[in-house]
Target: Cof-type HAD-IIB family hydrolase
Amino acid sequence: MAAIFFDIDGTLWDRENRIPESTKEAVLRLREKGHLSFLCSGRTKALIRDEKLLGLGFDGILGGCGTQIVYRGERLFCHEIEKETLIKTVRILKECRMPILMEGETYMFMDPEVAANPYGRYIQETLGEFVKPLTGNEDQWRASKLTVMIPGADVERAEHLLKDDYQMLCHGKWVMELVPKGFSKAKGIQKVCEALGISRDDTVAFGDSINDRDMLEYAACGIAMGNGTEAAKEAADYITDDIHQDGIYHALEHFGLI
Model:
């Protein structure tokens, strides 16, 4: 029995949240073969609720870059950033001109600049009442990680002032994730393996982006999507085809998992 960990965005589905039919079939066949499958995303659990995704029958969810773990509906683990650290973080990010998306297990809190961009609008449409303005809801702040917009920001200063608290992952010139120090997708996989008695030798990870790099290196077999970034491809053991060229199906078939 193997445990296969899938990134979501750019791996299982595309920018329009379209899941290839071959991917749906591949996940179904994994289950029929007795393997375990997990979502392993930078998204926190609050934003992993799409039924066409969850309906594929994954055994568990690793959300927020390893800060949240759910297995067959049971909450195994959730790390939340200490309130004092959140307050300090928001102050510094504001000083550095970085609009904020604060990501929790149930709620998200966002600045107006985030709410006005396409991704922010998607979050509001998806979460409805579970997304709130960052300002004015300080007493409700709870978060496992943060994402910020970085055009025009003083990124270097923010990185210097917050380097002891977060690993900072830049996605091109537009967005940066702040993941609490000591957490990553790889650490999440390690926690799942420890909890379920799975050998690291039996792990496979699929990803396409910089926040997948550590799990691609950690898993016994790290597979980068053909449409992935260079950072993901450099960390991978194997590069499969693009998402819409049946990349997941071909890789699982190549390694004899389906």
Remarks:
- The first strand starts at residue 3 and ends at 6.
- The chain has two domains: 3-78+183-254, 83-180.
- The mean pLDDT is 97.
